[in-house]
Amino acid sequence: MSREEYAIWVYLSDYPETAFPRREIARRAVKRNVFEENPHWVDQALNALVARGTVEVTEDGFYRLKRRAG
């Protein structure tokens, strides 16, 4: 897991029942200056987490940690 993926995972794990838009994750998962320098830093890492099945996309296009069955 990359540093960016880990930052996203930590942020989402703080709010396991909440789904967030991509931009909100990009702004809040890292320090402000990282977002200001590159607001698209989240794209590749978030796509990797979705592909791996760690994060899921809701019907409205928001992201959250994948819910466990049961």
Secondary structure elements and their pairing?
Elements: H1 3-13, H2 22-28, H3 32-37, H4 42-52, E1 55-57, E2 63-65
Antiparallel strand pairs: 1-2
Helix pairs in contact: 1-4
Describe this structure in words.
- By secondary structure, this protein is mainly α.
- It has a single domain, classed as Orthogonal Bundle (Arc Repressor Mutant, subunit A), CATH 1.10.10.
- The chain has 4 helices and 2 strands.
- It has a two-stranded antiparallel sheet.
- A hairpin with a 5-residue loop joins strand 1 (55-57) and strand 2 (63-65).
- The protein is globular and about 40 Å long.
- The N and C termini lie far apart (26 Å).
- The model has no long low-confidence stretch (mean pLDDT 94).
The number of domains: 1
How many alpha or pi helices?
4
The CATH C-level name is Mainly Alpha
Major sheet summary line = 2 strands, antiparallel
Strand content: 5-15%
The count of DSSP E runs of length 2 or more, i.e. the number of strands, is 2
Gap from first CA to last CA:
26 Å
Which oligomeric state applies? single chain
Q: Which residues form runs of ≥5 with pLDDT under 50? A: none
Rg calculated over all Cα atoms: 11 Å
Structural class: mainly alpha
Shape: globular
CATH topology: Arc Repressor Mutant, subunit A
Q: Helix and strand string, N-terminal first?
A: HHHHEE
> Helical proportion?
40-55%
How are strands sequenced across the largest beta sheet? 1-2
Known CATH architecture: Orthogonal Bundle
